[in-house]
UniProtKB/TrEMBL annotation:
Molecular function, one GO term: oxidoreductase activity
The protein, known as: Phosphoglycerate dehydrogenase-like enzyme
Residues in D-isomer specific 2-hydroxyacid dehydrogenase NAD-binding domain copies: 109-294
InterPro entries in UniProt: D-isomer_DH_NAD-bd, NAD(P)-bd_dom_sf
Length: 333
């Protein structure tokens, strides 16, 4: 017998997918409300009988969710659950995979932007300078991209990189095989041309033309790339970081860019957000900065993909199957 569904949605609504959910569970209680602000308390009567909560943040009085069986997050991160008084046995799933496509496309854009020196070409255009420098005429095909963190985003970067004719290396703590029960872009569950473990970081870095960081920021990954690690990259290499800025040591990165030891960088996650006018990365040599938009709720497909994930997991929840992107209790408690 399927679990009863008493659902509170605290997410932007996608009307087509909401209609599908209502049709799939016509006997369910489904209430909609504005997204929950961090630290916000909700009336206990609104929480008491809920079996399912679809939100980015749990309410501050999560202890009132005594009947909760499943929490579906709208974010890939789940640090916001630390210390939340959720009931024992609640199942939690995150939204990993929802932003894979736009983030991977940003990475391809930046490979081409830095590879063909587009910022320099645009400066030539603004100065009305006819410059046919050979640096503008290179190709990325045949180069080697290294992906640090081989989750769903990293695999989509690998899939698109293969289409450009790049050789794909990857470094991962958790391996390179198929990842069942994960939400993500179709066809992206591919193996790299060569895989490395954490102990092989020096060998991994020494062979790259492009380093792409797609790992989450954790106690283990914070500051992974300092002066020693960046010096292992060939001088021709560029660094792309659509993940979290602090995986790379800020001072070391500025020094590597300023000295020319690193050929360039594209940064979407910044050390200070929003970036102040005097932020040194605005003017760092051969550096492209974007305002944390590689994958965001502003994507025209974000809400539809998020609700697709939720609808798939609702079916799994009712049939007792593993949820897509289910997070082990030990990882978020």
């Amino acid at each position: 017998m399927a679990d009863p569904v008493n659902l509170l949605v605290a997410q932007p609504v996608h009307e087509e997918w909401l209609a599908r959910v209502r049709a799939a569970v016509p006997d369910a209680v489904i209430d909609l409300r504005d997204p929950i602000v961090p630290g916000e308390k909700l009336p206990e009567a609104e929480l008491r009988h809920r079996t399912v909560l679809f939100t980015d943040h749990p309410p501050a009085n999560a202890e009132a969710l005594a009947s909760l069986r499943w929490l579906q997050l709208g974010s890939a991160g789940y640090q916001q659950l630390a210390g939340a008084p959720l009931p024992d046995g609640v199942r939690v799933a995150n939204a990993s995979g929802v932003n894979d496509i736009p983030i991977a496309e940003w990475c391809v854009l930046m490979m081409l932007t830095l590879g063909r020196r587009l910022p320099d070409a645009l400066r030539d255009q603004a100065a009305r300078r006819w410059n046919r420098d050979v640096a503008y005429q290179v190709e990325v095909r045949g180069r080697r991209v290294g992906i640090f963190g081989y989750g769903s985003i990293g695999r989509e970067v690998a899939r698109l990189s293969r289409g450009l004719g790049l050789e794909v290396w990857a470094l991962s703590r958790s391996g390179f095989g198929p990842r069942p029960d994960r939400f993500g872009a179709a066809g992206a569950d591919i193996a790299p041309d060569r895989g490395f473990g954490p102990a092989e970081l020096p060998e991994f870095l020494a062979g790259l033309d492009v380093l792409v960081i797609t790992a989450p920021l954790t106690d283990e990954t914070r500051g992974t790339f300092g002066a020693t690690e960046l010096a292992l990259l060939p001088p021709r290499a560029v660094l792309l970081n659509p993940a979290r800025a602090h995986i790379v040591d800020e001072t070391a990165l500025l020094d590597a860019l300023g000295s020319g030891r690193l050929a360039g960088a594209a940064l979407d996650s910044q050390y200070r957000e929003p970036m102040p006018p005097d932020d040194p990365f605005w003017t760092a040599p051969n550096t492209v900065v974007t305002p944390h938009v590689s994958g965001s709720t502003g994507s025209p497909h974000f809400t539809a993909r998020l609700w697709e994930l939720f609808a798939l997991n609702l079916g799994r929840f009712r049939s007792g199957e593993p949820l897509l992107n289910e997070i082990a209790d030990r990882d978020w408690r």
